[in-house]
Amino acid sequence: MFFRPDLIAISITELKNVHPFFGITFLTCKKEGDLPVGNQKVFQMDWETDKFLRQYHQIDPGSDWFFQPFKSIKEWVRPDYAPKGLQSINTQSFGKAFLHETNTRIWGWAPDYISILASKLPKNKKIPVFQLAVWLYKDKEWAENTKFSDIIDFFINDFHITLEEEVALFDISRPPDFKPELTFQQSKSSWNDLQNFLKQPPDAKQDQGGMLSYLETYGLGPAKHLLLEPADRLTLITGDNGLGKTFLLECAWFALTGEWAGMQASPNLGKKPSPGEVKENQTSITFELIGDRGKSKPITISYDWKTSSWPLAYKPTIPGLIIYARVDGSFAVWDPARHLGSSEAPTGANKYVFSSTELWDSKTGYIEGLIRDWVRWQYSPEKQLFETFSSVLELLSPPDLGKLAPGKPVRIPNDPRDIPTIKHPYGETAIVYASAGVRRIITLAYLVVWAWNEHVIASKISGDDPQRRLVVLIDEMEAHLHPRWQREVLPALMLIGEKLQPQLREVQFLVATHSPLVAASTEPIFNDETDLLVDLVLAKEGEVSLREMDFVRYGDVSSWLTSPIFKLEQARSSVAEKAIKDAKSIQLKQNATTEEVSDISMRLTKCLAADDKFWPRWITFAEKFGVIL
Q1: Looking at domain 207-269+277-561, does it have CATH number 3.40.50.300?
Q2: Cα dihedral sign for 430, 367, 313, 8?
Q3: How many whole angstroms separate alpha carbon 23 and alpha carbon 155?
Q4: pLDDT tens per residue, range 376-418
Q5: Are 43 and 33 in contact (CB under 8 A)?
Q6: For residue 510, which of 299, 232, 265 has the smallest C-alpha distance?
Q7: How far from chain centre, in Å, is Cα 581?
Q8: Where would I find the H helices in 159-194?
Q9: In 10 A of CB 264, how many CB atoms?
Q10: Where are the domains of the chain?
Q11: In whole angstroms, how large is the CA radius of gyration of the chain?
Q12: Cα atoms in the 13 Å half-sphere on the side-chain side of 485
């Protein structure tokens, strides 16, 4: 068990009256120094104090500064606090408590050090041991049956506190509101938990490698309110047309990047809310990112009615590399190594949104295009990039056409470029003549490899390490793909990180689909701990809501069609569904006529196969009315 973050926050408040000498220097001397009383020994005060600070007070993994909860003007102190900030306190304010020769490493306690230290305490304010222990042992794991006295005893023993020191300096009383069930939790409090009630350190840097962990919208899109908490690996989004799958992906892109990939989302309330109206009537997007240091604080961006825009917000977490395959065939890329803030770039310069034509034929200043890059990679002396591209193509290949393998470039009429080719069972084909499905997958493979390669180059130029996380957004995963391909492509795509770089193992996918085959394809790989299935539904009241669904392995695709996800009554044509529905109804009818039975029999004959499982039931019924089939 570990101390709860809210208890740590209370302890920080309670320690505000404690002088930093008692919380840092005194404990350093007691734990590491074992200083003699009335005598002296060699003791590296500055070095030991710095070690103490690093153990208990360096709480932000991305900062070199120390947080000290004690009485001081500054909560965050510089990395050189031990030899500079504390040195004058040790030698001047509390100098009489020590036996110390100036400019030496010789230290000891004065014979009357306890009375001297006690005189420095605020009137009737001894050091609260429980609150001090909560702060110091915020990372310590405690046994399940830990009692209040165990915490006090551990502190006393850990810091070698003598009985005289305990009586004169420390308050070991039990807080009146102490309850074990309100003291501990199962997991250790992280910096992310603590920063919810602390200021950022002066040298705070933006966290890196963020993925989306929370997305909430009010007054936007098809619903007054939507809430999505994406899974770490795969979030599969289903729902009828017009209920907001694309809208969710567009908002996810905005939450991650601070920019819209296309047209921005606009209020759907029809009127500007009045000042002071409840949150549910506001137009806003709230999100959280999770990076190397954990989850960020929730960030809410409210729609600016004066400028009809979404104000930029400072994000403490920079997302990893992001690739978005949009429903219109365009693709968007956000690269933290190449990204320029809007204040440093002309309008649009920080957007990497490419139409399908631009991706193939180039966009000046941004991308050379698939046709040029493919040939350049293929004939480059450095083969690694082309080999990576070829392996990604092979990974995403359709099962009916075999592996997508590059052939030799060719020239085609009225085009001065060398055009890449793909090997098919029937021969090599210039990619410009490939089917829509093959072209889309080729484009996706190219963009992933291109984006990662450009990211690595930009990271090298800036002196940073490449990102370890990749976020992939895909709208209508099944677009243009044959059913055989639909049930293969998503599991294959989820392995793409290994093809780019072995270290890139954290890839988050947000995928929207209408296809039961795409949903069924995840059955062998779906993990409840890392994956999520959500469904957008329209209630009778006309409200759209987002529901988290239990992932059920239905097996047969027909069962997926009739599942709560796709909601068909029958895995058939609508005509067959209506005919069977009418047939079942007439079987329950008390006064059915021969003409009605004959009419339904004719309808069933037109839309059901000869071996359909419904026939035995119907034939037996129809024969009672003299209708022979």
Answers
A1: yes
A2: positive
A3: 12
A4: 999 999 999 999 999 999 998 888 777 889 999 999 999 999 9
A5: yes
A6: 232
A7: 45
A8: 163-169, 191-194
A9: 13
A10: 2-194, 207-269+277-561, 574-623
A11: 34
A12: 21
**Residue 194 · residue 59 · CB < 8 Å:** yes
> pTM for this one?
0.73
Judged by average pLDDT, the poorest of 6-20, 203-217, 227-241, 269-283 is 269-283
Contact between 1 and 142 (Cβ < 8 Å): yes
Burial class, 3, CB count within 10 angstroms (exposed 0-12 / middle 13-18 / buried 19+): buried
Environment class of residue 146 by beta-carbon count within 10 Å: exposed (0-12), middle (13-18) or buried (19+)? middle
Of the candidates 214, 269, 265, the one whose C-alpha atom is nearest the C-alpha of residue 244 is 265
Under a CB-based contact definition with an 8 Å cutoff, are residues 152 and 130 in contact? Answer: yes
Contacting residues for 269 by C-beta, under 8 A, at least 6 apart: 219, 224, 281, 283
Q: Which of 384, 380, 334, 382 is nearest to 354 (CA)?
A: 334
The token pair at 138 is: 């915020």
> What distance in Å separates the CA atoms of residue 434 and residue 423, rounded to the nearest whole number?
11
Beta bridge mates, 294: 291
Residues 6+ apart with CB under 8 A from 541: none
Query: For tokens 């209408």, what's the residue?
Result: 514
How many of the other CB atoms lie within 10 Å of CB of 157?
9
Q: Can you tell me the distance from the alpha carbon of 41 to that of 25, in angstroms, rounded to the nearest whole number?
A: 16
Residue type present at position 190: S
